[in-house]
Amino acid sequence: MSEHHTPTIKILVGTHKAYRMPSDPMYLPIRLGAALHRDSDLVLRGYQRDDTGDNISAKNPLYCELTGLYWAWKNLDADYIGLVHYRRHFGSRRRERRCAGDPFDRVILSDEILPLLPKTKVFVPARRHYVIETLMSHYEHTHYGIHLIETRRILASLCPEYLPTFDRVLGQRSGHMFNMLIMERALLDEYCSWLFQILGELERRVNTQGLSYFQARYCGRVGEIIFNVWLAYQMENGAIRRDEVVTLPYVMMERVDYPKKISSFLEAKFLHRKYEH
Q1: d(CA 193, CA 204)
Q2: In this structure, is residue 220 part of a structural domain?
Q3: With a threshold of 0.85, does the pTM exceed it?
Q4: Rounded Cα–Cα distance for residues 204 and 184 (Å)
Q5: Residue 255: which residues within 8 A CB-CB, separation 6 or more?
């Protein structure tokens, strides 16, 4: 990137339905799993579909929002590419905007991100803390631990140098979750090449027979965990410096039912009831 080049940035907003979107042109709404649906209303709204060009749109029931990331990796031309969700966005770090009553007024805009480029290579959401769980134990209680056990076996075969980082990260009680990121294009190429090779192999090894629709979305869930593994490994080995990673708050666009959320969490941990919503 030349010294006088103004970096371009596009942040995909993954959605499966019509929804209010940020007005900043930096954001690109994308209809996830479009290959499985024909929503004329979303097309009329100008939403990008994830089933054009090179894509894995039909695998959305397994990959969740990662079908949008794959589409961007293969088809989108921008110096920086990001992914957020229609109900969860990166938030501004400016004090006057963080307290706004309308959550859309708290969403970060291009005038705050652009000055941080190109010195920043990766933007991540604030860590999600599990307090009484590690990333591994939380996944085991709420989903099926075999998915991560099999992922470790794949790493042992494809890139064993990641194993110490995998074990350390899975033992942590927090992580950058939700498959939310903004990343320099060249780095995104490296990450997606690594990620989708692993998830493609995981898809071949895991039998979804007997899994509910919710639990079958394991490729997307494993992806959000091993993003932490990939990022930690890059930082440990000097490919990404700590000052090149910026943590941003995230904004929930709808009210969260925390009593219900905590109840489900405790039932999963102590009563072994898997998440189904």
Answers
A1: 17
A2: yes
A3: yes
A4: 30
A5: none
276 inside domain: no
The domain total for the chain is 1
pLDDT tens for the chain, 277 residues long, are 555 788 999 999 999 999 999 999 999 999 999 999 887 777 768 899 999 999 999 999 999 999 999 999 999 999 999 999 999 999 999 988 988 889 999 999 999 999 999 999 999 999 999 989 999 999 999 999 999 999 999 999 999 999 999 999 999 999 999 999 999 999 999 999 999 999 999 999 998 888 888 899 999 999 999 999 999 999 999 999 999 999 999 999 998 766 666 576 666 556 556 556 6
How far is it, in rounded angstroms, from Cα 31 to Cα 46? 10
DSSP state of 3: T
| Residue 200, domain member (yes or no) | yes
Q: List C-alpha distances in Å: 197 to 62, 134, 145.
A: 15, 25, 20
Does any domain span residue 38? yes
Q: Which domain holds residue 224?
A: 9-271
